[in-house]
Design goal:
Number of strands: 32
InterPro entries: EF-4, EFG_III/V, EFG_V-like, EFTu-like_2, G_TR_CS, LepA_C_sf, LepA_CTD, LepA_IV
Distance between the termini: 55 Å
Protein name: Elongation factor 4
Subcellular location: Cell membrane
Bound molecules: guanosine-5'-diphosphate, magnesium ion
Strand order of the largest sheet: 10-9-14-7-8-13-11-12
Number of helices: 14
Catalytic activity: GTP + H2O = GDP + phosphate + H(+)
Main location: membrane
Low-confidence stretches: 52-56
Length: about 600
């Protein structure tokens, strides 16, 4: 295809502002999917995406559209909608010349609208501002058109108004995409360079890689090379998604499509990497490549120890489709055999856990998530700590913790309350802007550890559900962090060790010891429960002794009943964990981990 007849764009929006619905409508308007075949959110393939209404994996679709008698090829690239996947979003944006900035006409601008807009601006994209859902009775298109125009610095009249639901304005929008966005530029006779913006494992076809060709051409049967690693593969098939795969004789400058090489693992075809021709390779890659970096770690254990091999197989399978997922075996006194798993963020953790449970039928327990620390030991050696158990004992020179820059949008009346929350989480205010009289954008730097757990829930409840949040990784800082251990009769219970700020160590200790006192049944002897930093005890509880004689309840005689009780007690013992001399039902540990 002649590059001047191509337009590459994506839709960026806050969650629920109607991106998937609009994308579906465009597929219908351009005739690539008939109304008969249309099912809601055609592009959101994974069940879990559909359930949660979020887009995790992006897809690209080619659609024909005619303006003034000329037929253009529109490539729509669907970006993932969640903060955990910022890097993937940035790669999808880099594959486009322009973005439709979609805003719900009844809600106005939200945090993800801004975060995505900033990313789009960083990628030098042309922005087309669009208000969606104008069919809603409570839509306020005039008000929000002004807000949007102020934000991106355009005229109010330039803000388009559509309804993905009724289809109103969608055809005009497609016309504007062609008129307003530039055609892709590239050098047709240069060595081929294509950027990978997505890579998906397919049971039948192996890994399907989505690319945007920048220079040159890629043809079937050629040998291609991944520039980050130098590995080469035979290009078995290349084509466009329309939206079903249509093989072609090659993709040239500006084109967007898929390719198949027969690799079986997405880590061999990494998002952000540049593909070139191995016979006539490009000298410079397209840039912007980053290895996926897990930000949050958690222990994952099967409830039933015999499921351990099944959990390992399930993780192996998920990893074929998820280059960001990393894991290694781990054992815990309290929980048995499991894995330490690294995730891009909390949503990634939740999604992975849900998939393991739903698709692989596993019952799992996860330990409290922690971030990655760099710790300088007394001997000046820097070590990476992804698990509290790796935190060095004894003297430590420095601990570096990861930071994020967060964008919070809230009604102005909640400014005080949001500030209070952020201060309590060791946040630093970086700036504040009014988007309108009643809505403010607050920019904070916060330790990642302070927001991975329950920050969003607190933010929502303090703002009656009106605040929105987005964040991205933003460097590190030195902080006064300590490891708090929980001891049962002097024995450390690994699953409950946590790295916290020194000022919060005491609160954690009191909370955890209190919780365990409630949950652990009494023993034949008194059991102290302590929280400690190194050898210093910071909180203490104890479980009083009882002399529990089950048989005494049987009032003599009935042998068979006594027997049953003894058997029941024996069966119960199997699920007991020994911590030193203390017998703890696994359920107690599980309960302590699962209740906030
Ligand atoms: P996404 O999270 O941005 O992909 O949003 P969806 O496309 O999943 O839409 C979120 C919700 O808004 C769904 O319940 C849609 O049916 C609804 N919705 C989307 N577009 C419109 C629209 O133009 N009008 C109305 N009334 N509802 C819409
Ligand atoms: Mg969606």
């Amino acid at each position: 295809t002649d590059p001047s007849l191509i337009r590459n764009f994506c839709i960026i929006a806050h969650i629920d502002h109607g991106k998937s619905t609009l994308a579906d409508r465009m597929l219908q308007s351009t005739g690539v999917v008939s109304s008969r075949d249309m099912k809601a959110q055609y592009l959101d393939r994974m069940d879990i995406e559909r359930e949660r209404g979020i887009t995790i994996k992006s897809q690209a679709v080619r659609m024909p559209w005619e303006v003034d008698g000329v037929t253009y090829a529109l490539n729509m690239i669907d970006t993932p909608g969640h903060v955990d996947f910022t890097y993937e979003v940035s790669r999808s944006l880099a594959a486009c010349e322009g973005a439709i900035l979609l805003v719900d006409a009844a809600q106005g601008i939200e945090a993800q609208t801004l975060a995505n807009l900033y990313l789009a601006i960083e990628s030098d994209l042309n922005i087309i501002p669009v208000l969606n859902k104008i069919d809603l009775p409570n839509a306020q298109p005039e008000k929000y058109a002004l807000e949007l125009a102020n934000l991106i610095g355009c005229e109010v009249e330039d803000v388009l108004k559509v309804s993905g639901k009724t289809g109103e304005g969608v055809e005009d929008l497609l016309d504007e995409v062609i008129k307003q966005l530039p055609a892709p530029k590239g050098v047709a006779d240069a060595p081929a360079r294509a950027m990978i913006f997505d890579s998906v494992y397919d049971t039948y076809r192996g890994v399907v890689t989505y690319v945007r060709v920048v220079d040159g051409m890629l043809r079937p049967r050629e040998r291609i090379q991944m520039m980050s690693t130098g590995t080469t593969h035979e290009l078995l098939e290349i084509g466009v998604s329309a939206p079903n795969p249509v093989p072609s004789k090659g993709l040239g400058v500006g084109e967007v499509g898929y390719l198949i090489t027969g690799v079986k693992d997405v880590r061999q075809s990494k998002v952000g990497d540049t593909i070139t021709n191995s016979i006539k390779p490009a000298t410079e890659s397209l840039g912007g490549y980053e290895d996926p970096k897990p930000m949050v770690f958690s222990g994952l254990y099967p409830m039933d120890g015999s499921d351990y091999p099944a959990l390992r197989d399930a993780l192996d399978k998920l990893q074929l489709n998820d280059a960001a997922l990393v894991y290694e075996p781990e054992t815990s006194v309290a929980l048995g055999f499991g894995f330490r798993v690294g995730f891009l963020g909390l949503l990634h953790l939740e999604i992975t856990r849900e998939r393991l449970e739903a698709e692989f039928n596993l019952d799992l327990i996860s330990t409290a998530p922690n971030v990655v620390y760099e710790v300088m030991r007394e001997d000046k050696v820097m070590i990476t700590v992804t698990n509290p158990s790796e935190f060095p004992e004894g003297k430590i020179l420095e601990v570096h913790e990861p930071l994020v820059s967060a964008t919070i949008l809230a009604p102005a009346e909640f400014i005080g309350s949001v500030m209070e929350l952020c201060q309590g989480r060791r946040g630093t205010l970086r700036g504040m802007d009014y988007l309108s009289e009643e809505r403010v954008e607050m920019r904070y730097t916060l330790p990642l550890a302070e927001i991975v757990f329950d920050f969003f829930d607190h933010l929502k409840s303090r703002t009656r559900g009106y605040a929105s949040l987005d964040w991205k990784a933003d460097g590190q800082q030195i902080a006064d962090l300590v490891k708090v251990d929980i001891l049962l009769q002097g024995e450390q219970v690994d699953a409950f060790s946590a790295i916290t700020h020194r000022d919060k160590a005491y609160a954690y200790g009191v909370m955890m010891t209190g919780k365990l006192r409630e949950l652990i049944p009494r023993q034949q002897f008194e059991v102290p429960i302590q929280a400690a930093i190194g050898s210093r005890i910071i909180a203490r509880e104890s479980i009083r002794a009882i002399r529990k004689d089950v048989l005494a309840k049987c009032y003599g005689g009935d042998i068979s009943r006594k027997r049953k009780l003894l058997e029941k007690q024996k069966a119960g013992k199997k699920r007991m964990k020994m911590v030193g001399r203390v017998e703890v039902p696994q359920e107690a540990f599980i309960a302590a981990l699962s209740t906030g």
